[in-house]
Structures are given as structure tokens and as C-alpha cells.
Amino acid sequence: MKNALIVSSSPNTDGLTAACARAAADGLTAAGVRSDEIRLTEYTIGVCLQCANGWGTCLGQHRCQVIDDFQSLHERFCSAETIVFVTPVYWGEMSESMKAFTDRLRRCEATRSVDRVLTGRKVLAVAAAGGGGGGIVTCLEQIERLVSHLGMKRFDLIGVTRWTREAKLAAITGSARLLGETMSEETT
Ligand SMILES: Cc1cc2nc3c(=O)[nH]c(=O)nc-3n(C[C@H](O)[C@H](O)[C@H](O)COP(=O)(O)O)c2cc1C
Predict the structure, then answer these.
(1) Among positive and negative, which fits the CA dihedral 97, 103, 108, 114?
(2) 6 alpha carbon, distance to own chain's centre
């Protein structure tokens, strides 16, 4: 069975981000894909310490020398066939736990010249914002850049607000279903 990982980063278990993650899981299930969710706020993930002159073991060994929950999550991320990122929009950016995780992930994975396991794997990203949705564009732009650095493939970027909730939850489910149905296919 195909597998997907949903990486979410809100502390609220009943908020908009959680609803978006559930919508994505529904779509993946409809496509026959097994999905797990990592709720990053439930883990201890410190910030990158910019070791030594700016590079630590991330550069040559593609592992982070700051030991916490990052190591196990890094492994789970790389084992997933496709990824769904779901973050609340904070200050027009991804939330801090998502930033801490993906900053360290990028250092380990974007520095590989061979064995780039993430290359071509598809990503659906959802940015969940407040009423007017200011900052959705910059948040999704930040995620798009991350996806590019990781060598992954942007499948869809969706912004959702409290105002557009119902319509966008349906869109997330639909997009996740399509992602699940096409995740191992080449798309140009
Ligand atoms: C620290 C912080 C910063 C925020 N910054 C923005 C923002 O820049 N733009 C926006 O539309 N909403 C912003 N919000 C609102 C959240 O994006 C919004 O409430 C979102 O639905 C939170 O997700 P949740 O329901 O999972 O908690 C911010 C909220 C917090 C706590």
C-alpha cells in the first residue's frame, strides 16, 4: 500500500490547521493511500545551531548533530512516498515548529549530491490563516522555496482562511485524492 506523511504544525487540535490535515487524510484514504500525521508541536525540535563555521554534520554526513526528536522525524520524512505540509500562517510565514523542523531537514537533504531520496516526491502544502488571509502568499512562497531546495515536486499549494474554510476543505480533500492517485507517476 502506498504511504503518505502529513506534517502539521499547529498547537491546536481543533483549529483550522487540524481540520485541513483531516481533509487531506480523507483525500489520501479515498485514493487508497495510508497516511500518518506528525504534529510537530508535540515533539522537541530545537532550532538549527549553525554549528562550527555555519555547517555541522549536515553538510558532509547529512545528519543533524543536535540530538532531539529531529532524528526520528527526519527518518520518517524520508521514508514517506509523498508529503503534505499543513501550517498555520504566523507573521506571514510557516509556524515556528515547521520552520525549526524544515530548516534542519533542508540542511541535511539539500546538501546531498548523490542518493537524493526526496527527488521528485510530490508535495501538497496548505497554509491556514486568519480571516483576511494576509500572509498566505508569503507563507506559501516560503514553502515553495523549501520544496525546490529539497528537490521535491510541488503538486499543489492551497491557502485557506476562516472565511473560505468549507470550500477550501473540500479543495484540500480533492487535491489530496489526486495526489494519492498520481503520487508515483511522473508529472511534467
Ligand atoms: C503568532 C501568530 C501570528 C499570526 N499571523 C497571521 C498572519 O500573518 N496572517 C493571518 O492571516 N493570520 C495570522 N494568524 C492567525 C492564524 O494564522 C489563524 O488563526 C490560523 O487559523 C491558526 O491556525 P489554528 O486554527 O490551527 O490555530 C496568526 C496567529 C498567531 C498565533
Answers:
(1) positive
(2) 7
> What burial class does residue 114 get, using C-beta atoms within 10 Å of its C-beta: 0-12 exposed, 13-18 middle, 19+ buried?
exposed
CA 47/CA 123 separation, integer angstroms: 23
Q: Rounded to two decimals, what is the model's pTM? A: 0.97
pLDDT for the residue numbered 130: 95
Count other C-beta atoms under 10 Å from residue 150's C-beta. 22
Q: How far apart are CA 21 and CA 121, in angstroms?
A: 19
Partners of 137 in beta bridges: none
Q: Are strands 93-94 and 82-90 parallel, antiparallel or unpaired?
A: antiparallel
- Confidence band for 92, pLDDT divided at 50, 70 and 90: very high
Determine contact, residues 56/64, Cβ cutoff 8 Å: yes
Ligand 1 center to 87 CA (angstroms)? 9
| Lowest-confidence region among 141-145, 151-155, 175-179, 182-186 | 182-186
Q: Ligand 1 test: best mutation among 89, 169, 172, most atoms within 8 Å of CB? A: 89
* CATH numeric code, 3-182: 3.40.50.360
188: confidence class by pLDDT, cuts 50, 70, 90: low
pLDDT given at position 16: 98
114 CA → ligand 1 middle, Å: 38
* Measured distance CA(46)–CA(110) in Å, rounded: 19
